Amino acid sequence: MSKDSKRKVYIVDGSRTPQLKSRGKVGPFSAGDLAVAAAKPLLLRNNLPLDELDEVILGCMMPGEREANIARVVALRLGIPQQVPAWSVQRNCASGMQSVDSAYKNIRNGDANLILAGGVESMSRAPVLLNHTMVNWLGEMMRSRSIGQKLSTIAKLRGRHFKPVIALLHGLTDDTVGLNMGETAEIIANNFSITRQQMDEYAMTSHHRLAKAHASGYLDEIEVLYDGKGKFYDFDDGVRPDSSMDNLAKLRPAFDKKYGKVTAGNSAQITDGASWLILASEEAVKKHKLPVLASITDTQWAGLDPALMGMGPVHAMTPIMLRNKLSIKDIDYWEINEAFAAQVLGCVKAWQQDDYCQQKLDLKQAMGEIPHEKLNIDGGGVSLGHPVGASGARIILHLCKILQRTQAKQGMASLCIGGGQGGAVLLQNEC
């Protein structure tokens, strides 16, 4: 197949786990458990010969200690033949979107016909590490041979040796600018004059929309999880149907304690979850008589100031809009991952400002306003949570479902990425 053929790429089907809120303790499922549970029913209902898969790609930021190259671990646990290669990707918040984009390009360019791609994160199981002082002490202890040497080494043990390194806190902080993700959201809120009330209203709406989506049966992509104690999980358990402005107003700022507006209530929840999609060429669709949800029209990645990482979506979506000669009215629905209410609102405001569009996006004028009723219509990260490696695949999958349900034509999925990047995918309904 010629590398210049640029074949059409279809999203055949997809599934995900419910997103489970981290509650200050180790969650019931490892990242591998989540990924296996989401993929099994997906593969079974499509009746795919597993040896026909060309590869498995899985995005994950913090796999467990026994899950090196988690894509391969999961593929083998699923019974996918050993000859099918599997590889993991890590692009922080967009790891799941990166896996889908990698699959898309490999199929489009003729290097594959059928790929299982997705993302996973068990944030409740993010590593808690020993500090370097303790590691050095352990090394000295292992080198000690005599009882005297061991006692001498033990005598050096101090309280500082036991100070843990919380990997999740470091993962949510950009060391190049010295800011955690919440602090970058505060900057965006100030830059675009976004008020605490606007942020809380957005957060409340996110919960109400997710609650309605669950009640209406709009989340049929969710596969039920069962733990080893017989308990089952069948919905995104961070949702608060009774979310109100009064309750949100009671929460204190989480990052800028004195002047801040970003709270736990208007930020994405820390959650565990997995999401998968099957991508296929036209040849594979016909050969295996596969259903089709959508096709991928275009993708884009962008870089920007890490201190403004939340603006990544507008930097990634703009080139797609220009390349495909689209205006906002041409996009029927938008999924912009809700890392923070301030961040999504900032992206919406940026496209309405001539100055931002001219100076930052090389546009002649403002792009326009994304209609609120077309954006994240079934909730987002604030209510669902944001399992970092999984979110990019989840928003693509759910946008496919929205286009199918509403019989709409086109949708745009995008997210911001810690470290100062943005990713976007343009989808076409094929149902």
Topology readout:
Layout: E1 9-16, E2 20-21, H1 31-45, E3 55-59, H2 70-77, E4 86-89, H3 95-108, E5 114-122, E6 128-129, H4 132-143, H5 147-154, E7 165-166, H6 167-171, E8 173-174, E9 179-180, H7 181-191, H8 196-216, E10 225-226, E11 232-233, H9 245-249, E12 271-281, H10 282-288, E13 294-303, H11 312-323, E14 333-336, H12 341-350, H13 354-361, H14 381-384, H15 391-406, E15 410-417, E16 421-429
Parallel strand pairs: 3-4, 3-5, 14-15
Antiparallel strand pairs: 1-12, 1-13, 2-12, 5-12, 6-7, 8-9, 10-11, 13-16, 15-16
Helix pairs in contact: 1-2, 3-15, 7-12
Describe it:
The chain is an alpha+beta fold and 431 residues long. Among the domains are: 38 residues, no CATH class; 172 residues, Peroxisomal Thiolase, Chain A, domain 1 (3-Layer(aba) Sandwich). 36% of the residues lie in helices and 19% in strands. The protein is built from 15 helices and 16 strands. The strands form four sheets. Strands 1, 2, 3, 4, 5, 12, 13, 14, 15 and 16 form a ten-stranded mixed β-sheet that branches. The chain has a two-stranded antiparallel ribbon with strand order 6-7. Strands 8-9 form a two-stranded antiparallel sheet. The protein is globular, with a radius of gyration of 22 Å. The two termini are 27 Å apart. The mean pLDDT is 95.
